[in-house]
Structure formats: structure tokens, C-alpha cells
Amino acid sequence: MLQGLNYLNVMITNTTTTTYVVTQESERLLQKLLAHEIRFAHWKSNGHLLKSLAGKTDLDLLVHPDDCAKYEACMTQLGYKKIISQAWSSYPLVEDWLGFDEATGNLLHLHTHYALVTGIQHVKHLYLPWLEQFFEHVIYDVATGWPIPTPALEAIILFIRMWAKMPPSERLKSNPTIPVYLKEELAYLLSKTNSEELSQLCKELQLRVPPDFGATVHSIMANQKSASILGVSIYFYEQLKSYYRTPWSVSVLKSHLHKLRIRSSRASSKLSGPFKFGKTLVKGGKVIAFVGSDGSGKSTLTRDVLNWLTYKIDAHYFYFGKNPFIFSYNKQIISKTDLLFKRDRFSQILRKLIGNTYYPLLINRKIEMLEHAKKMSRTGSVVICDRFPQLDVKGMNDGPHLLPKDWCADLEMKKFRQVRDYDADLVFRLLVSPEVACARKPEHNTDMIKLKCENISKISFGSSQVIDIDADQPYEQVLLRVKQVIWENL
Check: CATH 3.40.50.300 for 279-489? Predict the structure, then answer.
């Protein structure tokens, strides 16, 4: 039992029809926070609490600022990792932690608040003044055991959040739009309380209620009309202007500037190179490579690992095959050498014209990419490499191609030696039997696949940490094991 909190056994059910399984990690987190007597609650969107505890969306925790040191110590003990938001999603008294569920491989994102923060996108200009009152109106969700605000308190906060978060362009309309999911969430909360309880709580919060409040609440529950909802929302919100973190005009300007930066960066990144959109790791990122024969699952694994990481971490895909390229947030980055490495007819003619000079140019392009990958990892990003240059086996597995007989071969080898300056932090060597690989890739040359399978275990990858994975196993087992290793090394 947490000190100073009035817990009641109240059942709060999930409002969606989807079935979510609470992760073991979220249960462990709850027990640790309770054991450390930390004052906390999941403070908003509790109709979707099960979805959050399954690792499918954020856990929005409000932690009493006096318990900040205890909370951070608890996160460290649990092995959670602190992540840093970009400027457009970073706010005072708000921080982010990331946990990992060993059983499912799901990431748990703790969006941790030390104040009741809400407001316009990219700024969050309003800090609600009810921190102490909040913790006097916290209950237990019987379904999950998590502390949450009473439905009355959450409904009042949601009323305010609706107008505080309303985009300036919507505010100017005669009939501003409220997303359907917010209407449903409000109706759900109101069904768990009544106008008398709401009025009494508003009085305690020193918040005046609008005329005919009881009739308005009944009307909202009956038909969810936007005009009725916004009437209450604006009435409450207007009483809180003295609690703005920044003036409204300044907040609007900052929000527009952040949006402009995001749009321009997305547009220019295709030419200028990968741009950091996700959250970065405090202790630095990693360069992670996947190597293996055809049929080992490289491409599928790199795709799924990238999707898994970009849920909350800034991550990018670097392909080191015959057509090396960078893929970042659904955009392929354009390089000045792309014409040489494409598969179209013009590129084929170009490669034929330059002859063996193609191979030094190919490894040079990969070294440029490796240099960029290292720079990104130093600033907290994760780079996923599909294949990786190596020196141990020639003629296959992304090794040198030319025999040592002319200046092109010497230049290629010289360039390959530079790869050692950019070794990956972690290399997953996917070991697959020739029989399984050939079954997965029946259209490929069987003899070549067998040779690649035999040679992959001979490659050392310099100073990289190499993890051997039995790729004959069912794919879900392989993916989970890869996620576990990556989490251990982030």
C-alpha cells in the first residue's frame, strides 16, 4: 500500500474489443514501484490501460516529484534504459524510459511525468496545478492492480486536455472536430461517475462548473455532441490561464516552427542523409549487423528488428549488398553513386564500361556508409546492417572480389582493410544448414548456397562482438532471441 493514497477497489475495464495480454514485465514493474513506496499512477487514457501493459502503446505515468530519485533508482535496478526525445517532443518535468519483456520481446515505453503536463502539440504549454489533489484521488484498477485516477478526476482532466491540445487551426472553426476515440473515452469515464461527484471534485480543485452542468453531462453521455463537450472543455480551460508554461502566442509559434522543421527535414533527408526523428539512447547507440547465407533469414530479421526498434528508438537500415543503400523512416536516401549500383540497363552498361574499377568504388561506397553509421551510433541512434563487408572469405559473403594481380585489386584490398576502422558493435552470424537454406531458396544455386553456409562460420569480423544464431530454428524463436541479445547490449 502506498502511503498517502486513498485506494479503492474499482474495476476499470478495457473499452476496446481487442484482447491484450498483460506482459510479465509490466507486472514486475508494478511490484517494484509498489515495493519502493513510490507515489505514482497511470494518469490518462485508462480505458486503454491493458493495451499499454501489453507494450502496444505508451504507459503514461505520473510520479510524485518528491519520489523522483527513488523512481530513477528503481528504473536502474530493473534494467530500464533512459531515452532522450527530440526537441519537438521534449518538455520540462517529463522523461522517457524503456523496458523490455523477455517473454514476448515487446518494448515498454514509460512516458514519465513529474507534473500534470498537457497542451498544444510539440510544446505542452499547460501544467495543471493539482498534483497533491491528484494523489488524494487515486484508486486501484482491479483488473490489473495499477493505480489510476478516479473516473471523475480523469474526466475533468480529459475535458481540459481536449481544448488544451486543440490545434489553432481547429480552434478557429465554428465547429471544431473532436476525434471519435476521445469522445468515446469521455463517455466511458462519465458512465463511471455522476454530475454530483464531478461538481464536488471541481469545488475541491477550485474549478467552477458551467451552468446546467448536470444536464450537460447527461447530454454528453447520451449523444456525445462536440458542442456540448467543448462548452465544458473551454469553460474549465479558461480558468487555468495563469498556469501556462509559456504564453499562448509563443506556444503557437514554437509549435509551428517545430512542425516546419519536421516537414522540411523529412523532405530534405532523402538527399541530405538520415535525420533523427526517434528517441536516442543516453549511453549511445549501436551498429548491429546481420550476416548469413541466402535462406538464413537476414532480410526478414533486419526488417522486423528495424520495425521493433523504431517503435521508440531512432533506428535506420543500411544495406551492404551489391546495391548498397540507406533506408530511413520509409525513405531511401539518394547517393551520388546510385547510378553505378542499380539493376537497370543503364547501370549495367556503366559497370561494363568501367570494368574492374567498379569493385573499389563499391567498397568505397560501403565505407562511406560505415563511417556515417558510426557517427549516428555515437549520438544515440541504432543502425541495422543487412550484410556487412568482411576480409576473410573472397568472392562471396560480401568479401573482396578481385584476385591480387593489378592496381584495381590492390585498391580494393586497401579499401577493405579500412573496414576494420568501422567494425560493427554487434554481429549476428546466422548459421543455417545447407538443407534448410536450399529449401527456403529453391530458386537459388544450390552449390553456391552450400559454399556460403560453410564459409560464414569462418568469418571473424574484427573487434565486433559476434553472436551465433541457429537459424534452422522456427523464425519466431530466432527473432525473440535476437531481440533479447540486442536489449542486453543497448
Answer: yes
State the pLDDT confidence band at 128, using cuts at 50, 70 and 90: very high
Residue 241 C-beta-side C-alpha neighbours within 13 Å: 7
Q: What is the pLDDT of residues 388-419, one digit of tens each?
A: 999 888 888 888 888 777 888 889 899 999 99
pLDDT tens profile 320-333:
998 999 999 988 88
Question: Where does residue 482 fall: left (phi above 0), alpha (psi -120 to 50 degrees), or beta otherwise?
Answer: alpha
Which residues are within 8 A (CB) of 26 and not within 5 positions of it... i.e. 6 or more apart? Answer: 52, 53, 54, 55, 59, 101, 108
The Cα 235–Cα 159 span in angstroms is 9
Q: What is the CATH number of domain 9-243?
A: 3.30.460.40
Beta strands, E only, 13-106: 40-42, 59-63, 81-84, 94-100
DSSP-derived secondary structure letter, 336: T
Please report, as a single letter, which amino acid is at residue 110.
L
Per-state percent for the chain, helix, strand, coil, to nearest 5: 50, 15, 35
Of the candidates 313, 286, 307, the one whose C-alpha atom is nearest the C-alpha of residue 83 is: 313
Q: What percent of the chain has pLDDT over 90?
A: 72
Instruction: Give CATH 3.30.460.40 domain extents, the chain.
Output: 9-243
pTM for the structure as a whole: 0.90
